[in-house]
Design a protein that fits this description.
Rossmann fold, single chain, alpha/beta, about 270 residues, two-stranded antiparallel ribbon, 2 domains, 10-stranded mixed sheet
Length: about 270
C-alpha cells in the first residue's frame, strides 16, 4: 500500500474520517490525499454551461489548505499530504480520482452532514460500496484510530469468495501486525461451506487467525451480537457482486452492516 484517498465534505462529522485516515497513514507511512468534490451552480449560455461563482474554487482550496496545515502540524510532517478540489458529482469524482491517484484505500465518513438520515437510509459512503473497485473504509462518528489489535473478517461462503479481496485483507493485517478473527454467519454449514472454510484457512496459513461459524438468520443482527461479545477494532466485509438493478433497488448485506456499524468497516474489493 502506498496511497490513501480520504474524502471530506467539511461537515461537522467529517473530521472523524480525516483524523482516522491521517493516523492510519502515519502508522503505515503512506501518502495521504485529501479530496473535496463540490457541486457548482451553473447558468445556461447559448453554447455551454458556465460556472456562476468563479470564487468558489478558491474558497474550497483555502479550506483544504488550512486542513492540510493542521494535519501536517499534528504529525510533525511525517506524512506526505496532498489536497484536491474538483467540481462535479461527488461519487463520480471520487471514483475517477481513486483511479487517477492509484489509491490503495478510500476513506470516507459514514454519515456525512445528515447523521440521522444516514443511519436510517444510508449515505453517499454506503452508496459507494457497490460502485468502487477500490477498498473503502467507512468511519462512523466517534471512531478514533488506535493501532488495531484484532480485526474481524465476516465472510459469506454460500458462493465463491473473491480471492483478490482475501489477499488484500491478508496484506492489510500483515501491515498492521494484528490477528484476524474470521467468522461466517451460518447455522448449519453444508459440506461445500465446510470445504470453503478449510480453503480460507489455508489461504491465511501464514497469518495468525481463528475461524468460526456463528448462528443467525439476519446477518446484521448476528454480527452485532458477535461484536458486542468480542473486542474488535475493525470489521472487514467482502461485498458480493450484484446486478445494477438489484443494487439500485435493494440494500446489500454489506451496506446494511456498514450503515448500522459503530466501529470502522472496511469493504475489501
Amino acid at each position: 500500500m502506498t496511497t490513501i484517498l480520504v474524502a471530506t465534505d467539511f461537515s461537522a462529522s467529517a473530521h472523524w474520517a480525516t483524523d482516522y485516515a491521517l493516523e492510519l497513514a502515519c502508522q503505515l507511512r503512506l501518502r495521504l490525499i485529501v479530496i473535496h468534490a463540490y457541486n457548482v451552480n451553473l447558468s445556461r449560455s447559448p453554447d455551454r454551461m458556465t460556472p456562476v461563482d468563479d470564487g468558489e474554487y478558491e474558497q474550497i482550496l483555502g479550506q483544504l489548505s488550512q486542513l492540510r496545515s493542521q494535519m501536517l502540524g499534528a504529525t510533525n510532517h511525517l506524512v506526505e499530504i496532498f489536497i484536491v478540489a474538483r467540481p462535479g458529482a461527488p461519487i463520480d469524482i471520487l471514483l475517477d480520482e481513486a483511479t487517477k491517484q492509484k489509491a490503495d484505500l478510500l476513506v470516507m465518513g459514514l454519515v456525512g452532514d445528515e447523521p440521522i438520515r444516514a443511519r436510517q437510509l444510508g449515505s453517499m459512503a454506503t452508496n459507494m460500496i457497490p460502485q468502487t473497485s477500490v477498498p473503502i473504509l467507512l468511519v462512523p462518528p466517534g471512531a478514533v484510530f488506535q493501532k488495531p489489535q484484532n480485526l474481524v473478517l465476516a465472510l459469506d461462503l454460500s458462493s465463491p469468495v473473491n480471492t483478490s479481496a482475501i489477499s488484500m485483507v491478508g496484506r492489510f493485517a500483515q501491515l498492521l501486525q494484528t490477528s484476524l478473527d474470521i467468522i461466517c454467519v451460518e447455522d448449519e454449514p453444508d459440506e461445500l461451506q465446510q470445504k470453503a472454510a478449510h480453503h480460507i484457512r489455508d489461504l491465511f496459513r501464514h497469518q495468525p487467525h481463528t475461524f468460526s461459524f456463528i448462528s443467525g438468520y439476519d446477518v446484521a443482527l448476528a454480527l452485532e451480537g458477535y461484536l458486542d461479545q468480542h473486542k474488535a477494532d475493525l470489521l472487514i466485509l467482502i461485498p458480493k457482486p450484484h446486478s445494477r438493478l438489484r443494487t439500485w433497488l435493494l440494500e446489500s448485506n454489506t451496506q446494511e452492516v456498514a450503515r448500522l456499524a459503530t466501529l470502522p468497516v472496511l469493504a475489501a474489493m
